[in-house]
Amino acid sequence: MSQRPTRRTRSGARHLALFLAHWAGGHTVSNEELFRRIIKQRAEAHQEALEEHRRLVLRAHKKATKLHRIAEEDGGLTPAAKAELKAATKEAERHTAALRALGEFEVPNLDPGQVRHRRRRIAAARCAVLAAPAAGITAATVAGAWWTGPTAAVLGVLTSWARGPQAFDLTARPVPADLIAETPMVLAVPGAAPAPVVAPVAAAAVGLPSVPPMPAPAPAPAAAGATAPVPAGAAPAAAGTAVEGGQDLVLALSKALGACRVIPRGTQVTLLAPPEVTAERWTAVVRLPDDTGATVDHVVAARKNLGGELGLDRARLHVEQVAGADDKTLRVSGFTTDPFAQPRLCTAEMLGGVDVWEQGIPVAFDAFGRLLYLRLRDVSILLGGSSRSGKGAVLRLIIAGCLLDPRVRLHLADGKHPGQHRWKGLTDSYIYDPDKRAKQLAKRLEALVAEMGERAGRLAAVGVESLAERPDLVGTEGLTLEVVVVDEVSAFTLDVKYGKRITKALIDLAARGLAFGIVLILATQLSTAGVLDRLVTSNVVWRWCMYATGADESNTILGKGMAGRGYSAHLLDPEQRGSGLLLAEGRISTVRSLWLDGADMMAVQDMVRALRAKPTTPTPAPVPVQAPVPAPAPAAVAAPEADWSVLDRWLEQAAPPVPGPAAVPAGAVQRLRALDVIRQAGPDGIKRAALADAVGVPATTVGGWLKEWTSQGVIEALGSPPHTRYAATDGRQ
C-alpha cells in the first residue's frame, strides 16, 4: 500500500515537470499565433505612424491656410510670416511624402528566425515567472522563516499526488476566432469572404489640398428650348417642372462639396425643397450636414472649385444663404450663361414718380433678374472700385432718383470734373472747381453739421428721435432730405488745407446724420485705406464694391477679412462694368447696376427741369419814357507824356566826375545799369526779380534802390504813380 502513493506521487511530479517545461519554453503558443502577433504589432505601428503624419500635415496646412488668409486680408505678409509660411509648406510636403511612402500596409514575409526569437522572448518571461516563487522561498528561509521551505515541499508533494498518473496534453493552443477577426489580413476565417484590402492613403484623407480638376469647357449658349446645365448624374426635367426627389442632384452636389473639402467625403447634403430645372438654370435649396463645421461661407470660398466639379465656371454658379435660415441652409443655382453678361437699361418710366424714402430708386439687378431698390431711409452708401468699373453709372441713377423726388435737396461734389457735369444747374449745389472745391465742400458739410442741431430740435418738439419714426415729416419745412453725393472722395479728404475739416464733418454726418435725414453717398477709387477715416466707413450702411485690382482693395470697401471668406471683387469680370459685390443688411450679393443713358437720360433731365422749375411772376409792360438826349462827347484829352529829362538830369548828377576805381562808390555801376534798364522798360515797368537778374545783384538790394528812387521821384518820372512800397515797378506786369 505504501508503494502505490509513492508511485502516484512520482508520476504526478513527472507530469507536472513536463508541463512546466513545456509552458516555460513557450511551446503552448503556435507558430501561427506568433506570426499573428508580429503582424498585428507591425500593423499597429504602421497605423500609429500614419496618424502621426496626418496630424502633423493637418497642423502644417492649418497654419499655412491661416497665413494665406492673412495675406489676402492684409495684402501681404511680413518677412517673419513669410518665413513661417515657407516652413509650414515644407513641413507639409515632408509629411505628405512620408504618408505616400508608408502607403498601404502589406503583410511581410517573415523569416522563421523572427518567430523563434519571439518564442524565446516568451520563454524568458515565463521562466522568470517560475523562478520568482523559488527565489521568494529562499529569501524567506535565509531571513529566518525556516518553515517556508518545508511548507513548499509539502505543497509540492500534495500537488503531485493529486495529479497522479494523468498526463497533460502538451499541444499548442489554437488561435481564438475573436483574435482572428481582429487581424483578418493575417489568418483567414474558414468559410469567410476574403479580407478587404486597405486602400492606399489618399491626399484628401489626410487633409491635403488636392489640385482642383480641370474645369469642363463652358458650353455654348443654349438655343431656344435647350435645357439648363445639370450636374453630372442628375436627370434633367421638363422646363418649369420640379424634379421629384432630386436624389441624383443631391449626390452630385454632395460629391462636389466633398471633393472641395467643404464636407467630409461620404456625407450628403439634405434637400429641403424639390429642385427646379428650367431652360435657363437649375436651383436647389439644400442644408449642409451637421457635425461637419461647414457653413455657407465655406461653400462661397470654394465656389470656383465647386463650379469646376459641377462642370460650370465661377460666373455661372450662384450660391447664397436662404433669407431667415441658419448658416447651413443655402440656395445653389447653375446657369446656362452668365446672368450678368448683358447690361440692363433703366428707362425714364422706371424713374417716374420715384419715392426715395418708401419705394426706393432702382439701381441694380441680381443673378435672378430681380430689381434692387435703394431706399434712403436710414441708408448711406460707400461705393468703390477701380477706374472705369461702373461707379459713375450707379451715381447717375442715384442722382436722377433724388432729383425726381421734390423732398430731396441734392448737393453734388464732383471730384473728377467733368464726371457728373450733366447735372450742373439741376442740383441745389454743384461743387467742381479744382481751386475752390475743397473749401466749398468743407463749408457745405459744416453747415449741414450745424443744421443737425436745428433738426434735432424740430424732431424733439414732436416727440421723436429720427425721421424714420415719422415718415410724414419727410420733406416738411426744415426736414427735407439732404443728400450729399461726393464723387471721388480722395480729391477732397486728401486736400492739404481743407482735408481734415472735410473728414471731421463727414465723421459727424455719418454718425448722426441719418436720423435727421442727411444722407451720404461716397465714391472712391480704392487708392488707399487712408482716403476715408474708419469712423466714416464703420457707419456706412451699404457697401458696394465694383471690380478691384486686388483683395486688399476689395477689403477697403467690404471690410477686413471679406476676401478670406470668398467675397472679393478682384474675382469679378473687369469687362462687365457695373458688376459688383453689395454688402447690405448683413448679406453680400452679386449684382450689376442698371444703365441710364441716351434718350432716357435726356428724358430724365427734362423731367427734373419740369419738376424743379421755379415759378416766375409775369413781367409788367414797360412804361414808355422819352429817350434822353445824349450829351456831347467830351473832347479827347491827350495822355500825359513822361518827362524823361528828369531822369537824364538825375543820371548826369549820379555819374562820377572823374572815372576811376577810387572815384566810383561801391555798387554805383550796378545802380546806373539798373536805372538804364528801368528807362528802357518804359511805362510798363519791370519786375524786381527781373531787374536783379539784369544787373547781377540780389533782389533785396534792388528793393532798397527802388524804395529810395520812389521817394526821390525817379519812378514817377517813368510815368508810374508814386507807390508807398518800394516795389512800385513790380505791379506793372
TrEMBL record:
Indicate whether Nucleotide-binding appears among the record's keywords: yes
Q: Where does ATP bind?
A: G385, S386, S387, R388, S389, G390, K391, G392
Q: Which residues form the FtsK domain?
A: 369-555
Tell whether ATP-binding is among the UniProt keywords: yes
User: Which GO MF term does the entry hold, naming one?
Assistant: DNA binding
Its domain of life?
Bacteria
Keywords from UniProt, A to Z, are: ATP-binding, Nucleotide-binding, Plasmid
PANTHER family the UniProt entry points to: LP07818P1, OS12G0136300 PROTEIN
Name of this chain's protein? TraSLVB
